[in-house]
Design brief:
Radius of gyration: 18 Å
Keywords: ATP-binding, Nucleotide-binding, Transport
Low-confidence stretches: 238-245
Helix content: 25-40%
Organism: Nocardia tenerifensis
CATH topology of one domain: Rossmann fold
Strand content: 25-35%
Number of helices: 8
InterPro entries: AAA+_ATPase, ABC_transporter-like_ATP-bd, ABC_transporter-like_CS, P-loop_NTPase
CATH architecture of one domain: 3-Layer(aba) Sandwich
Oligomer: single chain
Strand order of the largest sheet: 6-7-8-3-9-10
Largest sheet: 6 strands, mixed
Number of strands: 10
Distance between the termini: 39 Å
Protein name: ABC-2 type transport system ATP-binding protein
Order of helices and strands: EEEHEEEHHHEHEHEEHH
Pfam families: ABC_tran
CATH superfamily of one domain: P-loop containing nucleotide triphosphate hydrolases
Structural class: alpha/beta
Length: 245
C-alpha cells in the first residue's frame, strides 16, 4: 500500500505537483494517467525515494520513504528501460540488481522465466529490442517478490503478444494482493484492465476513483475512458504554444 500525505513536489522555481492525500490500495491495479509534464514520473520517483519532496510524507507498506536511502524491501520498481549496461547480459544485470538490493540471486532464474527471457538470458543487453528491455526491467522489479510494484510506461515497445502478456501478469499480481501502480498513456489498455484510476493535471490530482465509477458516470455523447479523461482533464494543450488547440 502507498500512503501519501501533504506532498509537494518541486523543481527550482516551480511546483510540479501537490497531493494533499492519496492512497494506492493493495490488491488493485491502479493506473496513473495524465499528459506529459503533469508529474507522473516525478511522483513515481518520489515514491521510490529517488527524489525528495519539498514537503510531505510517503509511506510504502507502512515504511516511511526517505530520499536517497535504502529502498523499502517490499517495493519493486521499473522506471527506465535505459538503466542498464549494454555489455551486460540479462542474467548478469539481474544478479547485479539483486546484490545491490541485498537480495538472493537464486530468484534470478525465476523472474527470467516469468518474463519469458530464459532463452536469451545470456545475450548482451545491447542487442535487445525495446520490448525485451522492458521485460528485463519488469524482471528486476519482481526480484524482491514485492508487495508494492511501480512501473513507468512498461507497455512502450511491446508487441501485441507482449501487451497481452503484461496485462495478464499485472492482473495476476493484483489479484494475489499486490499494490500495482502503473503510469501509461494507453487509455484503451487502462479501460480494459484497470481497477482504479488516478488522473493528474494542473499540478494536482484531478480524479482518484475506481474505473467502474468513472465509466458509470459517462455523460451524453461519451462512450469511452478517453471521453471521460478529456472532460475531467480538459482539452490537451499544444506542446509548442502551451495553449489548447
Amino acid at each position: 500500500m502507498i500512503d501519501i500525505r501533504d506532498l509537494t513536489l518541486s523543481y527550482p522555481g516551480r511546483t510540479v505537483l501537490e497531493v494533499p492525500e492519496l492512497t494506492v490500495a493493495d490488491g488493485a491495479l491502479t493506473y496513473l494517467i495524465g499528459l506529459n509534464g503533469t508529474g507522473k514520473t516525478t511522483l513515481l520517483r518520489c515514491i521510490c525515494g529517488v527524489i525528495a519532496p519539498a514537503v510531505g510524507t510517503v509511506l510504502v507498506d507502512g515504511t516511511l520513504v526517505r530520499a536517497h536511502r535504502t529502498t523499502p524491501a517490499t517495493l519493486g520498481m521499473h522506471l527506465d528501460y535505459r538503466a542498464f549496461d549494454p555489455r551486460h547480459t540479462a542474467r548478469r544485470h539481474l544478479r547485479w540488481i539483486a546484490r545491490a538490493r541485498g537480495l538472493s540471486t537464486v530468484r534470478v532464474g525465476d523472474v527470467l522465466e516469468m518474463v519469458d527471457l530464459v532463452r536469451v538470458a545470456d545475450r548482451r543487453l545491447g542487442h535487445y529490442s525495446l520490448g525485451m528491455l522492458q521485460r528485463v526491467g519488469i524482471a528486476a522489479a519482481l526480484l524482491s517478490e514485492p508487495q508494492t510494484l511501480l512501473l513507468d510506461e512498461p507497455l512502450n515497445g511491446l508487441d501485441i503478444a507482449g501487451i497481452r502478456w503484461i496485462r495478464e501478469l499485472l492482473r495476476r499480481l493484483a489479484d494475489a494482493g499486490t499494490c500495482v501502480l502503473v503510469a501509461t498513456h494507453l487509455l484503451d489498455e487502462v479501460e480494459r484492465n484497470a481497477d482504479h484510476i488516478v488522473i493528474l493535471g494542473d499540478r494536482r490530482v484531478l480524479t482518484d476513483q475506481p474505473l467502474a465509477h468513472i465509466m458509470n458516470a459517462l455523460g451524453p455523447g461519451e462512450s469511452s475512458l478517453e471521453d471521460a479523461y478529456l472532460r475531467i482533464a480538459g482539452p490537451p494543450t499544444d506542446v509548442a504554444s502551451g495553449v489548447a488547440p
